[in-house]
Write a structure and sequence with these properties.
Layout (H helix, E strand, L loop, with lengths): L2 E6 L6 H10 L5 E7 L10 H11 L6 E6 L3 H7 L4 E6 L2 H17 L3 E6 L9 H9 L10 H5 L1
Parallel strand pairs: 1-2, 1-4, 2-3, 4-5
Bound molecules: adenosine-5'-diphosphate.
The site of adenosine-5'-diphosphate (ADP) has 18 residues, from helix 1 and strand 4.
Length: about 150
């Protein structure tokens, strides 16, 4: 089975994430959206909430699974028997950052990282901007799936 892991914080899920997931769907048999949990990091949404947003958004799609993990992404990939990591690229800063991680992962394993370029309509969307707007009681309805707004 051609399985890919899409790792991230998803704090919260945005239309930028769903764009990458939807466009990766024809390329893979299964996508595991893997929520990284880091005890030292402060999140706006609990891991249960972040998982719920993704599960609800894709409840009708059996190709998409949602999971949580701690530790290295390549170790998680080995555990779930995935040879690929999926990442989205928004801008040159993402590219530089992702390049170093992908090359390191290739050095440490045989896992390939597959990059999809953000679509023009979504390139400005980030979870951190969404969190800023939410903290200030702003409207994020054009930036996130419905389930995040109804939360
Ligand atoms: P991380 O902390 O691992 O970057 P994020 O939840 O911020 O976690 O992002 C997860 C993945 O989604 C990353 O590969 C990121 O580049 C991608 N991503 C986030 N927002 C967008 C967007 N607007 N367009 C394309 N990819 C995106």
């Amino acid at each position: 089975m051609n399985r890919v892991v899409f790792p991230g914080s998803f704090d919260p899920l945005t239309l930028g994430h769903t764009d990458i997931i939807n466009r990766a769907l024809p390329l893979f048999d299964e996508i595991i959206v893997a929520i990284g949990t880091n005890a030292d990091k402060k999140y706006m949404f609990s891991v249960e909430q972040r998982k719920h947003f993704i599960e609800k958004t894709y409840e009708c799609n059996p190709k998409i699974k949602v999971d949580t993990y701690e530790g290295l992404t390549i170790d998680y990939c080995k555990k779930v028997d995935s040879k690929y990591i999926l990442r989205g690229l928004r801008n040159p800063a993402d590219f530089e950052f992702e390049k170093a991680i992908a090359q390191t992962n290739r050095k440490l394993s045989t896992i390939e990282t597959v990059f999809l370029l953000t679509s023009a309509d979504n390139s400005y969307i980030s979870s951190s901007i969404v969190r800023d707007i939410l903290r200030n009681n702003g409207d994020v309805s054009l930036l996130v799936p419905d389930i995040v707004i109804r939360n």
